[in-house]
Design goal:
Low-confidence stretches: none
Shape: elongated
Structural class: mainly beta
CATH architecture of the largest domain: Sandwich
Number of domains: 2
Number of helices: 2
Helix content: 10-25%
Oligomer: single chain
Strand content: 35-45%
CATH superfamily of the largest domain: Immunoglobulins
Largest sheet: 5 strands, mixed
CATH class of the largest domain: Mainly Beta
Order of helices and strands: EEEEEEEEEHH
Distance between the termini: 58 Å
Radius of gyration: 21 Å
Length: 157
Amino acid sequence: MSGSTYKIKPQNSLAIAFVASQFTIFEGSTLTAKIWVLDDKGYKVPDAEVKAILKSKEQTLPSINNSYIISMKELPPGKHLIQLEASRPGYMKAQASLFVHVLIRGNVNGDDIVDYRDLAILVASYGKTNMFMDLNGDGIIDYKDIAIAISNYGRKE
């Protein structure tokens, strides 16, 4: 038997899948992500229990058509790690992590401070449509978005 290689594949194990593992949102926004729990064959697992944990605060995620929705409001500016756990009787548990960077409104370049660079980017984008830089959500970058950045000028994360 020396020199032989054996692969052991766990049976009835779970995996957590989602579109992106890293999210960037502005303060005051709601983090929303769709999550799937899969078995070892890649099929969706119905009726799993999925929890999101952030700094010892735990949230059980609702199930909709065999997928789960994480929705977190009021995350403070900064970088956050959200732990996900999925379990179902008869299966091995699964764990995954989501990284969330919550920016101060106006910090459009993501450097953790609202400054002249952010204002320059907004001014250069004036009149354009860009969901990320549209700070007030009205569909266009205009004086209202620049005013939001100015009101947060100098704030650091």
